[in-house]
Amino acid sequence: MHEPEPVRPATAELVPPTREDEVAAAGSELIGGPIGRRALLGVSWWTPVRVVALVAIGMFALGLVQKAPCYHSAWFFGASSQYTKACYSDIPHLYQGRGFADHLVPYFDKLPDDMSGGMGYLEYPVLTGVFMEVASWLTPHSGTIQYQEQWYWFVNAGMLLVCAVVIAVCVARTHRRRPWDGLLVALAPAVLLTATVNWDLLAVALTAAAMLMWSRSRPVAFGVLLGLATAAKLYPIFLLGPLFVLCWRAGKWREFVQATISTVLAWLVVNLPVMLFAFEGWSKFYTFSQERGVDFGSFWLIWAQNSSNPPSTGFVNTAATVLVVLCCLGIAVLTFTAPRRPRFAQLAFLVVAVFIVTNKVYSPQYVLWLVPLAVLARPKWRDFLIWQACETAYFLGIWMYLAYTTSGDAHKGLPTLGYHWAIVLHLAGTLYLCAVVVRDILMPERDVVRRSGDDDPSGGVLDGAEDVFVLGAAAYEPRHAAHFEGPQVDWGRPVPPSPESRSL
User: Fold this and answer.
1) pLDDT attached to residue 489
2) What pTM was computed for the model?
3) Closest Cα partner for 338 from 411, 249, 264?
């Protein structure tokens, strides 16, 4: 079947956020006003990608400063002070708690009970364990344990900084005409606050790189990077679900099969050696995920703490699985019935958000999973900042709650009821962004990306492809990108916002 070329804007110039986004335009007044023609034409060393990378480095450095009170004392001399100062991190505590200080090999050497609290083995996926071990090799194993833990956190922070820059640059390059959207990632408050709480940035960086490869129509490279990301954290594997339904609607089966096979093979290359020679240690991540009870940040915790008969772990596992399956089926129906095929980033964000919101734990650093996907799905500063405000409030809320529970009779911090409201707020922020993305799918004329004339810049082979399988209203013409006449905008000169754009 002949596939007509997608309609493109009359100009291939970059889409400047200060010309299409009221919040970005207002914020730009702090640095001299909306972007000018010379910047648009790239007649400067300060290209968008370089600016995004430098801003990401600067914001990450501010995040290190935010952790400074704990670095100097709170991690070592007071349980509650690391919460009241909101600078907690797992990294220094697990240096000794998971045997790195004693040169134990992850997955192969069993941890003493008094060291790991009965954990037995490292409870992280293999590639994250490798990351942690490499950081341990670079840490001086001499001096006091406090000195070693400081170094271990600092080495990990340097490695995670590389991951943070990779994420911002990959997002800036995924949508070719929208590189300035990478500033949303670089300036995200949640990234500043949670980047060094745990090791999640490794999986997020690999996932962002995979999204970039798919946008360049390289399904094998996408699969390899997604397989590595899944070897570092479980959530990236869920991106194959949206890809499946999108490739079904567009008939792109060869690319989907290539991506899936590459994902599986890359995951096996990392996991199989450990699986064969240290199966008990390798399986700890999966058994721990199944056996752990309801934990911080989830609506299940609100239920458990307000019930005389709290739900069992088995019930929550089953119920959460059912909720994820039902929501994913709903997303599949949305994909096949939407008037235009949804963008890959939109569905990727929705699926990962569903997994997090329904999970029995929503740790503060899990927001990192969503940041690059949210930027690609809905690059609108107002909506992004509303969501980030909710997540920032929750970041403060969880540490104040832990301060309350660890300060004894002093009860310094946030009581249980206040913490429950913080959970509700950050869940509501995530659901709000999900609702806006769903609205964009149902009303593509409201989609910020498509309003400038693009179809699916992160979609690779899906970008502008004709539909071969649709349901309901989507079965009626027009049903693919070539029928959509996007606005022909000259971004080289100021364009007053239209009433419709103000409503976005």
Assistant:
1) 40
2) 0.89
3) 249
